[in-house]
Design a protein that fits this description.
Layout (H helix, E strand, L loop, with lengths): L16 H12 L3 E7 L5 H11 L6 E6 L10 H7 L37 H18 L3 E6 L6 H12 L5 E8 L25 E6 L5 H12 L6 H11 L3 H10 L3 H5 L12 H12 L3 H13 L5 H8 L3 H14 L3 E3 L2 E3 L3 H10 L4 H13 L8 H10 L3 H17 L3 H13 L4 H15 L7 H10 L6 H19 L2 H18 L1 H11 L9 H14 L6 H17 L5 H6 L7 H18 L2 H16 L4 H17 L6 H11 L4 H19 L2 H14 L7 H15 L3 H18 L9 H10 L3 H14 L6 H18 L7 H15 L3 H18 L4 H14 L3 H13 L19 H11 L4 H8 L3 H15 L7 H5 L2
Parallel strand pairs: 1-4, 1-5, 2-3, 3-4
Antiparallel strand pairs: 6-7
Length: 953
């Protein structure tokens, strides 16, 4: 049976264009011989087909002969089939060709009479060879293609030797053969060629060995077959590993995959592809041609999976080194394995799967057990995960669990929390005994806290807890760590606090220190947690236990959590608690506490402290590889950069964090928040910003005073800019409810000023006064400079409404004090926002200085690239009859688009109408019309539909 893959389907030819360009002129210079070699499925026939479409001129003869694998081949069989289809002119046939009457009965009416039989069979055979050569010459300018020479019979090889050594002057000969390495021109049977290739000097010769496609070429082929512009690099990489870059295998896989388009466009997970029956047949037929020992070695390579050296393959196959090397030579010749740097493996993953499935099922556990035992004799670090996989496939589950636990222990000791978590989970899934299960669960809980895990870890820990086989100490510790996982990584805020609270009684029974640690953890407040009073009570309970805690590590953890809780509450004693932290807090503990303190200092308005804490957090993270802590410190840093107005390049950084930290809800929420705020303020993309901010609110698990209030404040500003005060009030209600419920007024600094503005503009002055009074009471004894600056801002806004007349000194002093307070706190956006409100109030009252104050706000906004806010201020100036003046020293833009024209052009290219653009950018409809017209003129376009391509959007 011939198991060589059929010719590839026409349509997509990748990675061969330059080769075709080189071969075409070679085949055109007659006589010519072109030899194309390569492994099965690499595209030899396809390349020949493309070459033939380019080569023959009108009227030329093209004959294609295909050799077939056969145990008893008929002499000249492929030539007979090809030449029987030719129609030579009788006038061109020499008498010698009459010797072919018996061989080519289909041409008997054209051939001369047969000569008398030769006395010597060898002479008769030689006459037939000469006759075939003469018949070929009679065809004139012809191309003869002989494919799959590795299966050519002896007579066909003899004919080709004759033609190559003395080719007809107008013949182009194209030969293909399966070969896994480049052929050697002077070697008998050189890797697929069954005869030496020795043409005379006047013959044009080209030899080509086709290599599999590269990863990039595999991706390009897949894109062409799927009808898409490109496929993701990850998909191309996996497809290349699955198929080895063989075009035939790529086509077969994509043709039989249920929905390859979903995976190739990045919209779904990438499952293993199906194993096409045609690919399986090619692999199995290749195995059948191998000697017994070679089949055993190839089966061993399939079981091992990864490239393996000779001793390892021999140990799994049960062969000595000499027999193994001989078997590998046979397997290499057939292309059943590939050699790489002294190791051997199956050529691609689907070939490995087909080979593995060809191993008798009862034999597989035996081979896996041999593999596990051979790998344990590995010099250097043991490949424990591979060994575990082989033990599991051999049915030795206890050994597999032991190896996985050892692998996890090794990763944990090396600081790789993510890998350790995965290995402990794998071990738990292996069905360990109760004692081992409980031990694994405790190790998993301890290490997972510093990994970025998914829902599998909490589920596994709960499953162990539900067995009720743990003592109070391990049970309490696992519940504590489970609660921390739920709090930090799963988005289950209150559920996490309750889980930790349930751990306290168990912990008290065995360890006062562990119980105090649990209490100090749930004492840390949050907007989605319990009221601040309850957190203070829990902190007092932890303080009560602290004198009885002797373990230095636990005592340090309690003190760190205590300092964090006090700082987040705005307690004046927090900084003394920080100063009292023991020097023993290092590594991961130092990174965690200083990141917490940096976040609290940023939110409450202590920029210098925040910088110092953040620097120490980064220092600790750089010396301890813990993905969770790296994400923690990075998102804390991103929030600090936004708060302090360091917005250059921040959007790209926040977007990277948003993509990377999606499995840690609070970090993901903070990244979404900053993305939304920057999309609003620097791009004016109100709809995009609102979607991002809404996602942030839905995502956050507990929120220590940033996400809910800042997202609500931005939504309020969007509605107020569009003159929708009632909607602005509704937008703030959810976050304001959480502040009131918890009593966390120290975290209301972002929300309170725009909330007061919304209430005032909606005619709810009484509610505005109530809100300001609540804020004042809530921060009365707190160390919260940002909340105090917000209180000053709120009072200025209320004073401008019903206090002394604007511009007479009362509200002006409040506005000036608020702006100065924000400036002192290094909050440029809030300071500009105060000046904007102040300037607009002065303009509305007809008081002097309004224009100047509003221009100061514009300048401050421009300094941080707050484009949306600049446009809002400029509209305010126009509404009060003021002419917007370009910033001093600014130059004209000439034929280049101004920033505002570019912003308008970008939105127009997205299909927004002028009215929609006006709403997005806070401009009048007429202004947008002017900007669109100027943008089209400067870009030399006649339609707004052309803008996107011109701007590279």
């Amino acid at each position: 049976m011939n198991a060589d893959p059929p010719t590839s389907a026409p349509g997509v030819l990748i990675g061969r264009s330059a080769l075709l360009d080189d071969l075409h002129p070679v085949l055109d210079r007659r006589p010519a011989v072109v030899v194309i070699t390569g492994e099965a499925g690499v595209g030899k026939s396809r390349l020949v087909g493309e070459l033939l479409t380019r080569t023959p001129p009108s009227g030329a003869v093209t004959l294609v002969a295909r050799c077939q694998e056969s145990d008893a081949p008929f002499p000249f069989a492929p030539l007979v089939e090809a030449l029987s289809l030719s129609r030579p002119r009788q006038a061109d046939l020499t008498p010698l060709t009459g010797a072919l009457r018996g061989l080519l009965p289909d041409l008997a009416d054209l051939l001369p009479p047969a000569p008398p039989p030769a006395d010597d069979p060898r002479a008769g055979r030689h006459r037939v060879l000469r006759a075939l050569r003469a018949l070929t010459a009679s065809l004139g300018r012809a191309v003869l293609v002989v494919e799959d020479l590795q299966w050519a019979d002896e007579s066909t090889c003899a004919f080709l030797r004759t033609v190559v050594s003395d080719p007809p002057p107008h013949l182009g000969l194209v030969l293909t053969a399966r070969s896994h390495t480049a052929p050697h021109i002077d070697a008998e049977g050189g890797d697929g060629l069954p005869f030496p290739l020795r043409p005379p000097a006047q013959v044009t010769v080209a030899e080509v060995h086709l290599l599999p496609l590269s990863m990039a070429e595999t991706g390009a082929l897949a894109a062409g077959l799927l009808g898409v512009r490109a496929v993701p690099e990850e998909f191309a990489d996996r497809l290349h590993r699955w198929t080895g870059g063989l075009p035939y295998v790529v086509e077969e896989v994509l043709r039989r995959w249920p929905d390859p388009t979903a995976c190739s466009t990045g919209t779904a997970e990438m499952p293993e592809p199906p194993l096409p029956a045609s690919v399986r047949r090619v692999v199995v037929e290749r195995l059948r041609r191998l000697p017994s020992d070679a089949r055993r070695v190839v089966a061993a390579a399939a079981v091992l999976g990864d490239p393996a050296p000779v001793p390892l393959l021999g140990a799994v196959a049960g062969l000595g080194e000499r027999e193994t090397r001989s078997a590998l030579a046979a397997a290499l010749k057939e292309g059943a394995v590939r050699a790489t740097g002294g190791t051997y493996a199956l050529p691609y993953e689907l070939a490995r799967r087909a080979t593995y499935e060809a191993v008798a099922e009862p034999e597989r556990p035996v081979l896996h057990l041999r593999a596990a035992r051979a790998l344990t004799r590995h010099t250097g670090p043991l490949p424990l995960v591979r060994i575990a996989g082989h033990y599991r496939s051999a049915g030795h589950h206890t050994h597999a669990v032991r190896c996985l636990e050892a692998a996890a222990d090794r990763a944990a000791a090396g600081g790789d929390a993510g890998t350790a978590t995965d290995r402990y989970l794998d071990a738990l899934r292996g069905g360990p005994s109760a004692v081992v299960r409980d031990r694994l669960a405790l190790k998993l809980a301890r290490v997972a806290l510093n990994a970025r895990t998914g829902p599998q870890v909490p589920a596994a820990l709960r499953q162990v807890l539900d067995q009720h086989s743990l003592g109070p100490g391990p049970s309490g510790e696992i519940r504590l760590l489970l609660g921390l996982l739920l709090r930090n990584q799963s988005g289950s805020g209150l559920e996490a606090l309750e889980e930790i609270a349930r751990a306290v009684p168990d912990l008290l029974a065995v360890s006062t220190g562990q119980a105090a640690r649990a209490l100090s953890i749930i004492a840390i407040p949050s907007l989605k947690g319990w009221p601040i009073g309850e957190h203070r009570r829990l902190l007092a309970e932890a303080d009560r236990l602290l004198p009885r805690v002797d373990e230095e590590e636990l005592r340090s953890a309690v003190l760190a959590n205590r300092a964090t809780a006090l700082a987040l509450m705005g307690d004046p004693s927090a900084w003394q608690a920080v100063a009292d932290l023991p020097a023993a807090i290092t590594g991961e503990g130092a990174a965690r506490v200083h990141a917490n303190l940096a976040g609290a200092a940023t939110a409450l308005g202590h920029p210098e402290r925040a910088r110092a804490f953040q620097a120490r957090a980064w220092e600790a993270v750089r010396t301890n590889h813990a993905p969770y802590l790296e994400a923690f410190v990075e998102t804390t840093d991103i929030l600090a950069a936004f708060t302090s107005g360091r917005w250059k390049g921040l959007l790209e950084r926040a977007e990277r964090a948003e993509a990377q930290y999606r499995n840690v809800p609070d970090f993901h929420a903070e990244a979404l928040l900053v993305c939304g705020l920057l999309r609003l303020h620097t791009k004016g993309q109100t709809d995009v910003a609102r979607r991002l901010l809404e996602r942030a609110v839905r995502t956050t698990a507990l929120d220590t005073g940033v996400v809910l209030t800042s997202a609500a404040a931005a939504a309020v500003r969007i509605h107020l800019a569009a003159d929708r005060p009632a909607q602005a009030v509704r937008a703030m209600e959810g976050a304001l409810h959480q502040v009131r419920r918890t009593g966390a007024w120290v975290w209301a600094s972002a929300l309170a000023p725009p909330a007061v503005q919304a209430l005032v503009r909606d005619g709810r002055d009484t509610e505005a006064h109530r809100l300001v009074a609540e804020l004042a009471d809530g921060i009365a004894d707190r160390d919260a400079p940002a909340a105090r600056a917000a209180l000053l801002t709120c009072r200025a806004l209320l004073g401008a409404t019903n206090g002394p007349q604007a511009g007479t000194g009362g509200s002006d002093a409040l506005y000036a004090a608020a702006a100065d307070a924000w400036t002192a706190l290094e909050r440029p956006y809030e300071a500009a926002y105060v000046r904007e409100a102040w300037g607009l109030r002065l303009l509305a009252a007809g008081a002097a200085g309004g224009r100047t104050v509003l221009h100061e706000a514009i300048t401050a906004y421009q300094d941080i690239d707050a484009v949306w806010d600049v446009l809002r201020c400029q509209r305010g100036l126009r509404e009060h009859g003021q002419v917007t003046v370009r910033r001093p020293g600014a130059l004209g833009y000439g034929d280049h688009l101004s920033p505002r024209e570019r912003a308008v052009a970008r939105l127009a290219s997205l299909g927004l109408s002028n009215r929609e653009i006006a709403r997005e950018l806070v401009l009048s409809h007429r202004t947008v019309e002017h900007h669109v017209a100027r943008a089209l003129r400067k870009l030399g376009l006649s339609s707004r539909t052309e803008i996107g391509s011109q701007l590279g959007l």
